[in-house]
Amino acid sequence: MSLMQLIYASTPFGFDNPTLNQILSVARRNNARDDITGALICRADLYLQLLEGPRAAVTATFHKILADDRHLDVVLIACGDIKTRMFPKWDMKDDPATSWMWTQEQVAAGAIEHTSDEDVRVVFTRLLSES
Ligand SMILES: Cc1cc2nc3c(=O)[nH]c(=O)nc-3n(C[C@H](O)[C@H](O)[C@H](O)COP(=O)(O)O)c2cc1C
Fold it and tell me: The pTM is what?
């Protein structure tokens, strides 16, 4: 079975702690069932999510995420086959990523659109090494 990894960014809509906790608890329940793992960088101005798992499961989950009105402007950053998972132990790791990522000003100026998929992967690699 082919393993796929998908990374996207979006802009939170109605971001607060109850909303985030709701997203994470449903995500973790579904992902455990669907053999999906990954990480969600979550802050008031940015969601950046890495999903990995069987192709069909990742595709179906991304469809649901695209239709979710708790965020806007979903942009696909990377999508392709992988040999091994980056986050095998996490149904969905969450990280506020406050100190070492882009500033709010950079995000507002379109930092994500101007960052290569390789550089975005570096962000997740760093998140992994710090956990
Ligand atoms: C930023 C963001 C990340 C999400 N991540 C996941 C996820 O990893 N897995 C998941 O099943 N749903 C995720 N969701 C929720 C889905 O959009 C959708 O609400 C949910 O899958 C519906 O679950 P249900 O079919 O059990 O009702 C996410 C939503 C947002 C806004």
Answer: 0.96
Residue located via tokens 């708790």:
70
Is the CB of residue 37 below 6 angstroms from any atom belonging to ligand 1?
Answer: no
In a domain, 26, yes or no: yes
Q: Which residue, 113, 102, 123, is CA-closest to 10?
A: 113
Task: Answer yes or no: is 114 within a domain.
Answer: yes
Q: Decide whether any atom of ligand 1 lies within 6 Å of the 30 Cβ.
A: yes
Helices (H), the chain: 17-34, 55-66, 104-108, 117-129
Residue 96 pLDDT more than 90?
Answer: no
Tell me whether residue 92 is in a domain. yes
